[in-house]
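FORM 7B: Structural annotation worksheet

SECTION A. Query
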Amino acid sequence: MSDADSFSPPRIYTEELANSALPLVRRIVDDLVVRFRAWQDAVSRFEYATIKSTASTPDPDADALQAEASSIAEEIDICVRELDQLGVECRAFDTGLVIFPGERNGTRVRFVWRRGDAAVSEWRDYDAGSASAKGTSSSIPSRAQPVTGNTSLASRSRSDGSRE
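SECTION B. Predicted structure
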């Protein structure tokens, strides 16, 4: 039985429940951050390969690089779904910032944890409808989704917030 099978996530976390979930969340987020960096690298290599391509002389590596990026994107999606199953939202793939919806003393709060932190911290400014959080985006990078058909990764809008 895996940790995910033995942990039953609450709909609303207390600080104690959020901290007790951290060993599992930490492993998922570690995988997510590593895969996100690998995906950024694969996309960059793919984009470079497509720049060198022309209709008459396509770069032979472009298809393989696109497949690599798509495979990594699928792995990222698995990590995100695992966090969703725990009721946890990843707000930043590059830093591993996650949000636990919570409650303290009858007030809705968010418990925030970033990769490397020892424990969650409380974030009182709760607005369930908000799409952004103190400078972080809740949008999932458009290219982190599996690519189907003939969709070119290079043709998609850049929303991954790359900083590397």
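SECTION C. Observations
The radius of gyration is 18 Å. Residues 66 and 152 are 8 Å apart (CA to CA).

SECTION D. Sign-off
Analyst initials: ____
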